[in-house]
């Protein structure tokens, strides 16, 4: 994952996934979830006026 505008975070608490998405600095992590499902993800670094709307969904099949 890499940001193209500013630093963000990517937190998926149920999966224990917590990444920093820094501008132009890729980060990656490989996980093997035990459970299929739909998991909420958020940006956990304040990144500006749209921060509160940065809600995502991770789907594990
Ligand atoms: Cu944010």
Keywords:
61 residues; mainly beta; two-stranded antiparallel sheet; 4 strands; globular; binds copper (II) ion
Characterize the structure shown.
This protein is mainly β and 61 residues long. It has one domain. The chain has no helices and 4 strands. The chain has strands at 8-12, 17-21, 37-42, 55-60. The strands form 2 sheets. The chain has a two-stranded antiparallel ribbon. Strands 3-4 form a two-stranded antiparallel sheet. β1 and β2 (17-21) form a beta hairpin. The chain is globular and about 35 Å long. Bound molecules: copper (II) ion. Copper (II) ion (CU) binds at residues 8, 43, 45-47, 51, 54.
Strand content: 35-45%
Which stretches are low in confidence, meaning pLDDT under 50 for 5 or more residues running?
none
Tell me the span between the first and last alpha carbons: 20 Å
What is the spatial order of strands in the main beta sheet?
A: 1-2
Query: What is the average per-residue confidence, as pLDDT, rounded to a whole number?
Result: 95
Q: Structural class, please?
A: mainly beta
Distinct helical segment count: 0
- Give the names of the bound compounds: copper (II) ion
